[in-house]
Amino acid sequence: MATSTGLEPLVETQISVVTNDGRLFVGTLRGFDQSSNVVLSDCQERVFDTDKGVEQVVLGLYVIRGDNLAVVGEVDEEIDSRIDLSNIRAAPLKPVVH
After folding, report:
1. Is 27 part of a structural domain of the chain?
2. Mean pLDDT of 23-37
3. CA quadruple 6, 39, 26, 14: dihedral positive or negative?
4. 3-state SS string over 45-70?
5. d(CA 55, CA 47)
6. The domain that contains 46 carries what CATH number?
7. Domain total for the chain?
8. Gap between the Cα atoms of 77 and 95, Å rounded
């Protein structure tokens, strides 16, 4: 589980979050609390598909409950901006099994 010391350096940076139910979100970390609930601005969900490529669903300001976080990581914005998501074919992420 993420702790305040683990998330603090990521505030105001672009992060990627994989949730326990297998969803992938990318956005700017605006804040978090003691339960590791996170607030993302400019958030998009990236939905993977084996035929259509990656669909980006614009969500805007979004809150993800801390008990649903599986993985949180920093995004290299320069590399991420060069990826053509429409050409990526991948099966949807599966739920995380603990």
Report:
1. yes
2. 96
3. negative
4. EEECCCCCCCEEEEEEEEEECHHHEE
5. 5
6. 2.30.30.100
7. 1
8. 26
Residue-range definition of the domain harbouring residue 31: 4-74
Per-residue pLDDT reduced to its tens digit, 32-91: 999 999 999 999 999 999 998 899 999 999 999 999 999 999 999 999 999 999 889 998
Residue 59 sits at φ, ψ, to 5 deg, of -115, -20
N residues, the chain: 98
pLDDT range class, residue 2, cuts 50, 70, 90? very low
Task: Determine whether 18 is exposed, middle or buried from the number of CB atoms within 10 Å of its CB (0-12, 13-18, 19+).
Answer: middle
For the whole model, what pTM was predicted? 0.89
Tokens encoding 54: 């990656």
